[in-house]
Structures are given as structure tokens and as C-alpha cells.
Design a protein that fits this description.
The structure holds two protein chains of two kinds. Chain A is built from 13 helices and one strand, in the order E-H-H-H-H-H-H-H-H-H-H-H-H-H. The longest helix of chain A has about 30 residues. Chain A starts with 9 loop residues before the first strand and ends in a 7-residue tail after the last helix. By secondary structure, chain B is of the alpha/beta class. Chain B has a domain of about 130 residues: abc- transporter (atp binding component) like domain (Coagulation Factor XIII, Chain A, domain 1), CATH 2.70.50. Chain B is built from eight helices and 21 strands. The longest helix of chain B is centred in the middle third of the chain and has 17 residues. Chain B is globular, with a radius of gyration of 27 Å. The chains are: A mainly alpha, B alpha/beta. At the A-B interface, strand 1, helix 2 and helix 6 of A face strand 1, helix 1, helix 2, strand 5 and helix 3 of B. Strand 1 of chain A pairs antiparallel with strand 5 of chain B, so a sheet runs across the interface.
């Protein structure tokens, strides 16, 4: 009897540990994680005529507009790759980041009803958003592959670098980490200061232009003022986009050191986001 | 024996809330708080803050919704948590179910806690009943395998078999609630926290729901924390209880004593006063006669306003006669909540015809097992028949009767009727 006296399963305490991320608990709730993913996917386009076709339409139309404005009007050079394919590649990965960020940045405000009534590890929510967006990304990536094959048959000079193809999942993973980490950071702060929800809306839009989505990094270095060029170059997002394009289209350049630095930044962002998120989840319901 | 299997231990729990709007002041307070934490000091805002008394003006913007709550729950015990509105029950439930963290103190648990603060959390209108069972079950902490094992039972309990593959948005509200409750009722945590307001739906389903709750707590020997306003079901279900008042534990002990304590505790801030006292210049009455005070007590003389139906209600009236009068009488009328006069009675059969100046105390005794579950109003009037009124009819006090059933059922058995006396049936 005495021995069981101190064996508590868990403790609810007012004291806050700096990092109290309970991976075993998330593992125990894995079924919930996948049910949320399933819910997101099957309910996303219920009662729409085109349904999942919207996944396809969004990036295609954006790419067409980008091609018209930046390449036809703005004369941005995209090497020996067709501008449309160039834009589609960038936008596909960028969309994934955007969806992860906006989807997770309102975690607390959007789910306050559910969070106010029942406990489960709150990190399940942003994780499920990241995973269900991965499915959308997969569909959009298939479209990209389709167009890739189309341009290949058309006779364009495309050379996929099979040596680097294994880097592809790494870039997607880095994007997921960065979007998730940044989104969790924002979600923690929006519980108190709603100003951030407004900021996220147009901030993401502006960020895209500083992340080398509609232009190659080399063009930025040539044509932007040096300060802006440095900003774009040191933006981990432009490194990810540029690297992704390099792997898929073999345009631009990558360096091993830069990949490492970007990876470290992504992991750090994720960890910081996680810590702040965990601090907030304990009592956000009082301030939301 | 007593300490052998404590499953849940609550130690010094306190919860502070900030009142008012979250505005510009809050960011400076946040910085201040952060700065003191960086320096390793205590949170400067923890010291201030008032006890949570809703009706009074406090001195600061911080309030303690709970203060220094301590209790232990043993394995297999059913603990009732009772208290008036705003006593801190919901806050305690939220902390126990980890929806929000306490400001002070710790809770230690040896088992998984599942809480039912609301049914149907996370229901998605676009998904079918079956999909929602899985989702809701998982939110409440069940694994997919567990749900699959019980799904037939859940569908059967809900009685929604025909609609189970239809999106929930096509359900009637009653059906949604039935489905939601069915999922909740099939949870199997070590410790279950239940809010009794959950028993919703039509009468038939309510009976089923409360029967199920009873099953969970009594039949399966599970540890349950039960929150309710219904004293009858608390008495039926719980072994032990704690009474909360203004965020503090007012009383803890056997459930009978708890209910007694809860009913005795009277709250001056509401209309439900058990005593009124007038000063001589504002007392109702006339130049001949005034009322000085009225109170309702039980047979022991304890002043209270909520009585059990098996208690007698004593109404004590203090009056002052200012001139000598002949033939005066004090009339008493009892109204129920529908403004129907339940009965009326008069003092003249019990006192002298000629009365001299002085203070007169009356006590009217309403016998036990007479009144029904209701709120009653006491109206007093005095006069000399055919000559004049010396006190116009005034409603002076309210009191309530709570019905405790003896039939062994927990769902409310309030029978319709103005009164509810013990009636004998002789059947041959």
C-alpha cells in the first residue's frame, strides 16, 4: 500500500515547466489526430460543385496570373524552364506553407469551444492541420508532375537531377516545420492580441514576394537593392523554395551549408513555437 | 483503510481571474509579470484580488474564483460537488478536466480523468452520425479500437439507427443530443467528472440518461465526481460531498450533512431571504399596528429559506400593537409560484379578543409532508372585520420546498398539484 502512495499518473500544477511537451500523450491520442485529418479532408469541399477540383484550380490560376504579370509584363527570366512551370513549382510549395501557417495561427481562437470543454493535447490541432494540408499538397504536387511530363513531351529541355531527388521530402519537411512552428507561435499570441489575425492575413501575402516565389534568387541578387536582396537571401523560405525548384526543375543553385542552416532555423522555429504554444495552452481559455 | 487508495488528491487549488476588458493595461501588466519572473520573484498580481462575491464591489480587478481547495477522493467513491451559482463549481470542473490550469496548487491523479462538461463537443454538422461517434469518442479520449468495439451499443443507446449514415446537420436537435450523450455514456475512464445538466432530451431519454449515470457510478464501481443542483439525485448517487461557497470549501463530509448544509446556507443577496426586519419608522402597517420582522425557521429554530418536504416550516412574525384594539386579527395567506392561494389562516381562534398595546410574537407551523416542490410566498394582512384594515396585504417572504423522494428513483418525481401530502391507498 505504501508503495503506491506516490505513484501518480499525472499532476495538474500551477507551476510551469519551460518545456513540457508530452510526446507519449500525443502518441496515445494518435487516433484523434487522424480523425481530425479525415474530418478536415472530407468536410473541406462538402456542398461545392467542383469539390476537390478546387485543390487544382487554385495553384493553376495563380500560376497563370503570375506568368502574365511577372514574366510577360515584368520580363523576369526563369532560365531554360517555361515560366508557367517555374511559377507552378514555387506556388505549389508556397501554398503548403501558407495553408499550414494560416491554418495553425488561429488554432486557439477557432477551437475555443472545443478546448473550453474537453482536454486533449492541444498540439494535436496544429499537427492535424499540417498533415491534412500535406494531403492537399500531395494532390497539387501530382498536378505539377502532370505538367512536368507535358512540357517534357513538348520537347522542353528539362533535366531532373535524380541525385538530388531524395532532397525533395526534406524540403517539404522543412516547410512543414517552419509553417507549423511559426503558426503555433502566432496562435499563442493571437489569444490575447487579436491584432495578429489581421496581420497574418496580408503579412503572408507580402511575405511571398520576399520569399523568391515568383522569381529565381539570382534575379533578386541582380536587381533588388542590396538590403532587400540580403533579406530575401537570408529568408529561410526563399532558400526552401529555391532548393525545391532546384530539385524539381534543375534551375538555380543549392549549397550544402545553406541547407543545413535552413534546417536548423526550421527546427528552432518549431521548438520555439512549441514551447510558447505549450505555455499558452494551459490557461488560454481565460484570456481568449 | 481511509488512506489506502486515494485516487485523486487536490491540494491548495486556487484560481485567479482578471475582470473587465482585456485592453491596453494588460500588456504592461504582462510585461511587469514577465519581468518579475525573469528576476525570480513572485508574480506581483497574485497578492491582490478579492474573494469572489459577485454582488459586491471589489477593490481590484483580480478575483479569486477558487481559494485553497483541498480534498481527496478514494477509488470507487462518488463525490458530490454542490454549491449555488457562482460558488466555483464550474471553475473547479474546468481545472479538474484540464481545460484551464490552476493559479496555485496541484492536483495529483492516479487515473485518467474524463469529463463531461458538455455533450457533443466537436460534432461536425457535415459528417454522418457514425463518423461523428468516432470523432467525438476520440476527443473524449477513447481509441478507435475502443469505439469500434462499442459502436453498436452506442447506436442502440442513442436510438438513431435509421439516421446513423446521414449527416448530423439533418438531425433534429433532440437526436443530436441523444447521439452525443450515447457516446459520452460509453466512456470508460478511471475517474469521471459529470455535470448533471447533461441529462437532456425528452422525459423518456432523461430517465435513460440518469439511469445510465447511476449505472456508471454505482454499478461499475467507478470513481465519479458529480456536480448537480438536484439534491435528490445527489443524495441518491453520492457517498460524500463538498459544499462550495464563494470559491471556498464551506463544508465537506457525508452527503446527508452536505445537503443539509447547502440548504441551510442562505444568501442575503438574493430575493430568497429567510428573514426580514424593519425599523419602526419604515415598518409596514398603520398607526395602530406595525410589523417588526418575519423569519422562516425549521423546528430547531435555524433560520433558512429552503426546506425539505419532510420538514416543518415555522413562520415567526413579530408585531407591535400601538393602541388597544378589540377584535383585531392577523391573517396569513400562502401563495405558490402560480399565485394560487394554497391556504389561509387567521389568528383570531388562538388569541384574546381584546388586546393591549405591546409586542406580540406569532409562530405559524406548516406541518411536514404537506407542500409540494415549489416556491411559496407568505402574505400577511391584519384588520378588524367590518371596521378597518390596519395592515394591507403584503407579501413579506418567500421560501422553497425541495422534494426528496423515498421511492428509490433519482429522476425527479415531482407530482403535479398544489400540495403533496402523504396519501394512503388501501387496495383490497
Amino acid at each position: 500500500m505504501k508503495t503506491t502512495q506516490d505513484k501518480w499518473l499525472f499532476e495538474i500544477s500551477s507551476k510551469q515547466k519551460l518545456v513540457s511537451f508530452n510526446f507519449t500523450e500525443i502518441w496515445r491520442y494518435r487516433d484523434l489526430l487522424f480523425l481530425f485529418v479525415k474530418r478536415d479532408i472530407i468536410t473541406a469541399y462538402k456542398q461545392t460543385i467542383l469539390g476537390p477540383l478546387w485543390y487544382v484550380i487554385q495553384p493553376l490560376f495563380t500560376s497563370v496570373i503570375f506568368t502574365l504579370i511577372f514574366n510577360n509584363l515584368g520580363q523576369i527570366k526563369t532560365g531554360n524552364v517555361d515560366p508557367f512551370l517555374f511559377n507552378l513549382t514555387g506556388i505549389t510549395l508556397w501554398n503548403y506553407f501558407k495553408q499550414c501557417l494560416t491554418g495553425t495561427s488561429n488554432t486557439f481562437t477557432k477551437n475555443q469551444n472545443i478546448f473550453g470543454k474537453v482536454y486533449f493535447p492541444r498540439a494535436i490541432m496544429p499537427l492535424s492541420v499540417t498533415i491534412s494540408n500535406l494531403v492537399k499538397f500531395g494532390i497539387q504536387f501530382l498536378i505539377l508532375v502532370g505538367f512536368y511530363v507535358f512540357y517534357l513531351i513538348k520537347g522542353d529541355n528539362l533535366s531532373v537531377s535524380f541525385n538530388y531527388l531524395m532532397l525533395l521530402p526534406l524540403y517539404v519537411f522543412m516547410m512543414a516545420l517552419f509553417g507549423l512552428g511559426f503558426g503555433m507561435l502566432l496562435s499563442a499570441m493571437t489569444t490575447k492580441y487579436r491584432d495578429l489575425t489581421v496581420l497574418v492575413g496580408f503579412g503572408v501575402q507580402l511575405l511571398m514576394y520576399l520569399s523568391a516565389v515568383p522569381y529565381p534568387l539570382s534575379e533578386a541578387k541582380d536587381k533588388f537593392p542590396t538590403t532587400v536582396a540580403t533579406l530575401v537571401e537570408y529568408n529561410p523560405l526563399s532558400q526552401i523554395i529555391e532548393g525545391f525548384r532546384f530539385v524539381v526543375l534543375n534551375v538555380g543553385s543549392i549549397e550544402v551549408s545553406k541547407i543545413f542552416i535552413t534546417l536548423i532555423i526550421c527546427i528552432l522555429t518549431f521548438l520555439i513555437g512549441l514551447v510558447i504554444f505549450n505555455k499558452t495552452e494551459k490557461s488560454f481559455i481565460d484570456t481568449v | 483503510m481511509m488512506h489506502s487508495n486515494v485516487i485523486l488528491k487536490v491540494e491548495g487549488i486556487g484560481k485567479q481571474y482578471r475582470l473587465g476588458l482585456v485592453g491596453t493595461g494588460t500588456i504592461t501588466q504582462d510585461l511587469n509579470r514577465w519581468w518579475s519572473r525573469v528576476r525570480g520573484k513572485e508574480d506581483p498580481y497574485l497578492k491582490i484580488g478579492d474573494t469572489n462575491i459577485r454582488s459586491e464591489q471589489g477593490s481590484s480587478n483580480y478575483v479569486w474564483a477558487l481559494q485553497n481547495i483541498n480534498f481527496e477522493v478514494n477509488q470507487g467513491e462518488v463525490l458530490g460537488i454542490i454549491g449555488k451559482n457562482g460558488a466555483g463549481k464550474s471553475t473547479l470542473l474546468k481545472i479538474l478536466s484540464r481545460v484551464t490550469a490552476p493559479t496555485l496548487g496541484t492536483i495529483k491523479s492516479k487515473g485518467r480523468i474524463a469529463s463531461l462538461l458538455e455533450v457533443g463537443t466537436g460534432f461536425h454538422p457535415e459528417m454522418t452520425g457514425r463518423e461523428n461517434i468516432y470523432l467525438n469518442g476520440a476527443i473524449l479520449g477513447m481509441t478507435k479500437a475502443e469505439i469500434s468495439r462499442k459502436i453498436d451499443e452506442i447506436i442502440d443507446f442513442s436510438g438513431c439507427l435509421r439516421y446513423i449514415d446521414t449527416p448530423v446537420k439533418r438531425y433534429s436537435s433532440g437526436m443530436t443530443v441523444r447521439l452525443a450523450f450515447a457516446v459520452a455514456a460509453h466512456l470508460e475512464p478511471d475517474i469521471l467528472v459529470i455535470d448533471e445538466v447533461l441529462a437532456v432530451g425528452d422525459a423518456e431519454f432523461q430517465k435513460k440518461a440518469i439511469g445510465k449515470m447511476q449505472d456508471i457510478s454505482k454499478g461499475q464501481g467507478r470513481t465519479v465526481l458529480f456536480v448537480s443542483h438536484n439534491m435528490a439525485s445527489v443524495k441518491q448517487l453520492c457517498d460524500r460531498g463538498i459544499v462550495l461557497k464563494d470559491g471556498k470549501v464551506l463544508f465537506s463530509g457525508g452527503i446527508e450533512d452536505c445537503v443539509e448544509e447547502y440548504l441551510n446556507e442562505h444568501d442575503e443577496s438574493t430575493e430568497h431571504r429567510a428573514q426580514v426586519v424593519w425599523s419602526e419608522n419604515e415598518a409596514p402597517g398603520s398607526e395602530d399596528f406595525i410589523l417588526l420582522g418575519v423569519k422562516t425557521t425549521n423546528h430547531k429554530g435555524q433560520i433558512k429559506s429552503i426546506f425539505l418536504n419532510n420538514e416543518s416550516v415555522h413562520i415567526c412574525i413579530e408585531t407591535k400593537l400601538l393602541s388597544d384594539l378589540n377584535n383585531m386579527r392577523l391573517n396569513f395567506k400562502l401563495y405558490n409560484s402560480n399565485e394560487i392561494i394554497v391556504f389561509s389562516t387567521s389568528s383570531h381562534q388562538f388569541e384574546a379578543v381584546n388586546k393591549r398595546v405591546g409586542i406580540y410574537n406569532y409562530e405559524i407551523v406548516i406541518p411536514p409532508n404537506l407542500l409540494n416542490h415549489d416556491t411559496y410566498k407568505i402574505a400577511l394582512q391584519a384588520g378588524m372585520p367590518g371596521i378597518k384594515q390596519i395592515l394591507f396585504s403584503t407579501k413579506v417572504l418567500n421560501f422553497s420546498i425541495e422534494k426528496i423522494t423515498s421511492s428509490g428513483t433519482t429522476y425527479s418525481t415531482v407530482l403535479p398539484g398544489v400540495i403533496a401530502p402523504n396519501i394512503t391507498w388501501n387496495i383490497r
